[in-house]
Amino acid sequence: MSITVKQLHPYFMGEIGNIDLRQPLDKDTVDALSAAIDQHAVLVFHDQFIDDEQQQAFSRNFGDLETTVRAYRKDFVPRLDVHMADISNLDENNRVLPANDRRRLNALGNRLWHSDSSFKRVPARFSLLSARVIPSWGGETQFADMRAAWDALPDRMKSRIENMICEHTQIFSRGKIGFTDWAEEERAKMAPVPQVMVRTHPGSGRKSIYLSSHAGRIRGMEEPEARMLLLDLSEFATQPQFVYTHTWKIGDLVMWDNRCTMHRAREYDETQVRDLHRTTVSDGRPTVPEELAA
């Protein structure tokens, strides 16, 4: 049987039915999912009660998996496999993190609009987030369609930004919320990397604004002017007409294309457990060629 796709938003978001992600997928099904995410940018799968091994197997249908950047830190003690990003409020012993824990404070940056791994020289293609435990209120994830935002930009702004190169680092995004607790080895590995401002999405052929809270500089532009432009563009791209809010249920898996969306988490009751596990598929190549990167 073939998958079903129901569009959830006028511009993007597809709900996928008639599939069990615990089972190996044949080529036709993988091709159908690839076509669906090329069109809809974000796919929602309900009632997928998978474990980490099954999630990794499903994710590898679409490319190589990234490893968590938490491993950059020498004192890192993993709760999950290194190929799983721990999107939770739990420590390595499955206890809720205290309010002053650096891991919790760092994770507050996920409430800023961002694109996963844009702070890496080779950024992320897809992210796949699976809900294992959810709190009684809050914790939604919002998505913004950056292709629709590009389409709505005035022509003068399109011409202005089309060839710009930005510099991204997690140190920029966390600095916006006052977080500075980085180990020396983390700072060394998180040096700013160049990313184009505008991408042509290979699966759809559509242009997309490539934004993220990790972007802090624009090459050839004074920093105050660059930051103002980035703020203006982010505000424009996250207007209500471009945004969809996903309210999580246990067993949901949401897969999104970081090349043409931004997302952010919302506040929740942090005395309760929120445990989501993410796999991240690398895009396989940088957005800026080596000859232009320096």
Would you kindly provide a brief summary of this structure?
This protein is α+β, with helices and mostly antiparallel strands.
Can you walk me through this structure?
The relative contact order is 0.23. The strands form four sheets. The protein has a seven-stranded mixed β-sheet, with helices on one face. The longest helix has 15 residues, at 223-237. It has helices spanning 27-40, 52-59, 102-107, 146-152, 155-161, 170-175, 184-189, 223-237, 290-293, and strands at 4-7, 14-17, 42-45, 85-88, 124-133, 141-145, 165-168, 193-196, 198-200, 207-209, 215-218, 243-246, 253-257, 261-265, 275-282. The protein is built from nine helices and 15 strands. By secondary structure, it is α+β, with helices and mostly antiparallel strands. It has a single domain, classed as Double-stranded beta-helix. The model has no long low-confidence stretch (mean pLDDT 97).
Q: Notable features of this structure?
A:
single chain; 294 residues; alpha+beta; Double-stranded beta-helix; three-stranded antiparallel beta sheet; 9 helices
